[in-house]
Write a structure and sequence with these properties.
- The chain has about 130 residues and is mostly beta strands.
- The strands form two sheets. Strands 2, 4, 5, 6, 9, 10 and 11 form a seven-stranded mixed β-sheet that branches. The protein has a four-stranded antiparallel β-sheet with strand order 1-3-8-7, with no helix packed on it.
- The chain is globular, with a radius of gyration of 14 Å.
- The N and C termini lie far apart (about 40 Å).
Length: about 130
């Protein structure tokens, strides 16, 4: 059974950095895509970044390019999201998610949609004060 556990959130000030972690367990994730999503109060859940476990190809939504970095550590079965120059608008619950990268659905458009992911962590709160 796939289990995803996020950690690393907290209360920080604008301009600070955070590194979120997502520990994955339950199976080999070699053929998976791992996504980081966020959901602010009153807003829909949105993709921020995704990475293919196998070759570490990455995707970023335009609003976070240059400040967010997604990576994975195969040995630790962990996906990271480094967030630099945090802004109050980054305040949200951040979720890790996983989906098999089937050949018929291997586009970033597909992997940017929350509905594409069957496996989710419980989320970690990031709050940025101004």
């Amino acid at each position: 059974q796939v289990q995803l556990v996020e950690s690393g959130g907290g209360l920080v000030q604008a301009g600070d950095s955070l590194r979120l972690s997502c520990a994955a367990s339950g199976r080999s994730f070699r053929s998976y895509v791992m996504g980081w999503f966020r959901q602010a109060p009153g807003k829909e859940r949105e993709i921020v970044a995704a990475i293919t476990w196998g070759d570490a190809s990455t995707y970023y939504t335009d609003s976070v390019k240059g400040r967010f970095t997604i990576s994975r550590d195969i040995a630790k079965n962990t996906v990271y999201l480094q967030i630099d120059s945090l802004k109050p608008d980054d305040t949200a619950v951040y979720y890790c998610a996983a989906v098999v990268a089937a050949p018929s659905s291997s586009t970033w458009s597909y992997f940017s949609r929350p509905a594409s992911y069957p496996y989710w962590g419980q989320g970690t709160q990031v709050t940025v004060s101004s």
